[in-house]
Amino acid sequence: VSTQSTGGRSKHDYQDLCVVTSLLAWLRAHQQDLDQEDVAVSIQLQSTGTQLQRHLINLLHDLNLPGKCTSVDTDLEIQTLKIQIITNVTSYCVSAMGNSNVIHALFSPELGVKKGNSLNLLISLLQKALEGSSHHSDTYSQLIHKAMHVNQLSTEEQRELAGSIMVDIDKCSAIQRAKYAELRLEQLADTKDKELSLYTQLIESLVYLLWRHVHHYTVYCKEPCLDHVTGEPTPKRLLSSNKDLTKQLTKELPLHLTDPFLKKIVDFCSSKTTGSGSMTASFYFSSR
Fold first, then answer.
1. Reported pTM
2. Which pLDDT tens digits describe the chain residue by residue (288 residues)?
3. I want to staple 242 with a disulfide (CB 3.0 to 4.6 A). Which of 115, 132, 221, 280 is the partner?
């Protein structure tokens, strides 16, 4: 998994990254089944797990969630691929974290750190994902409205839309031009609908990752406990360090998870599923 600058990537590079990250996310989610069925694949995944995990999380730094985009086809395709790649990586992280009470923490509790794999990265991605989802939802509604009332669009706008499908638009009649414009609007709306679906999956993964990590640090790192890897009691030196980090996290968390930001999370989760409400409520109170 390469983490070169996004400026040097072509559409084919993003397509390759999308396929690879999707496969890795699937393999990580089904690793327990692989342990029983394909020992060789399981051993290979475990031996490269730490390095692979580091490269994948680096992609979250490297790839910015896209904002507003032009209507150029290549740009739209790359935008969708970026969202898909980031969604694949967060899905991988959810599986790698585990589902036991004491998780395998992938992100450190520091909130003031702009670089590195910290909770600050999750919060930043979540903010961008919520904004992106809202923007795409508005754009989708606008596209559908225009498609339903295509005859009310100006001739210039119809020509611009139809020109994306028909090269020699001057030879088309007004009725044909309107039909091509409607078809183009439907294509754009379909792309936005797919991106909205990806944003939903991404936001749910980010909320879950953030909530589990905050719960882990504020509950399980306060008191002595058995290390989930070695089974040995937590060393006093490490426990003291954990307490300091937890204290700092508890102090800084309300500054990053502000009430307006939390309301966006609650509103989003409430609109998608009834089950997310209790998780988000717990997340809200743990940050207070």
1. 0.78
2. 544 444 568 889 999 999 999 999 988 888 666 555 555 655 665 656 677 888 898 898 888 776 555 455 567 788 889 999 999 999 999 998 887 766 788 888 888 777 778 899 999 999 999 999 989 899 999 999 999 999 999 999 999 999 888 888 888 899 999 999 999 999 999 989 999 999 999 999 999 999 998 888 888 776 544 344 444 444 444 444 567 777 888 888 888 888 999 898 888 878 765 444 444 445 544 554
3. 221
CA–CA separation, 112 and 123 (whole Å)? 11
Please name the residues in contact with 274: beta carbons below 8 A apart, sequence gap of 6 or more. none
- The answer to whether 287 touches 254, Cβ cutoff 8 Å, is yes
- Angle, vertex CA 80, rays to CA 266 and CA 66, nearest 5: 65
Q: Are 269 and 280 in contact (CB under 8 A)?
A: yes
